[in-house]
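Ligand-bound model needed. phosphoenolpyruvate.
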Amino acid sequence: MPQTPAPTALVVANWKMHGSKALLTEMAQNLAAARLDSAADNGPPATQIVLCPPTPYLAPLAASLIQAGAPGIQLGAQDLSEHPEGPHTGQISAKMLADSGCQWAIIGHSERRTQCGETSEQTATKVARALEHGLTPILCIGETLAQRKAGTTEQILSQQLAPLQTALNAAQLRKLVIAYEPIWAIGTGATASPTQAQQVHAFIRHHLDTPPRALLYGGSVKPANAPALFAEPDIDGGLIGGAALVAADFIAICRATLRP
Ligand code: PEP
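Prediction:
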């Protein structure tokens, strides 16, 4: 009987407003040398790597990846406009991102929710826009420390997911990637324990009527804590911030998804 192939793990780098042309060249060369995107027996890669640099670096990063010999690594945006097009100075549409070679888009990162006042209704519209243009949305959800301490984590996550469940049909929900990013763990060095993360991931999976494409954990993932997090059954990979700016650390995290 043919074996069911192991699902491809997913590791997404969120560079936020960091980086330079020098960093993207270095990252492309190091990732190419690590051969993490090479498929065994011409099958799908064991780990799909997605890099989300600041928008001006998307095209140069794409060129560097091809030049370095890592064409399997894909690109994502860090946000997109909820509008299809029009007089929205400074915004970038899903159509433009797809046209410029992006295949993924981070949506609803907590920094956009807190710094730009983005609502869960807006993130649901952005997810729909991404899907309209063939981008895979990576929707971020997560609770604050106060909400966790008050025991309202599941309630908060349900509220963040609710507009999505009315905006999308089952086929669309199946294409979605959800990143659980507890706000208290982002950029703080305080990671959710594997048990805490697994509990929330299992909740999200059971809460949704339609299973998403993947459930990622994000929040101070480092080479040291990645293996234990990725060993949890409901954690399909990671969304990586700070550690994605250091090639050796990011490569070590990607390797941690490879189960023996
Ligand atoms: C993030 O911002 O999505 C993130 C996970 O950051 P960090 O890994 O630095 O906590």
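Confidence is low (pLDDT under 50) at residues 1-5.
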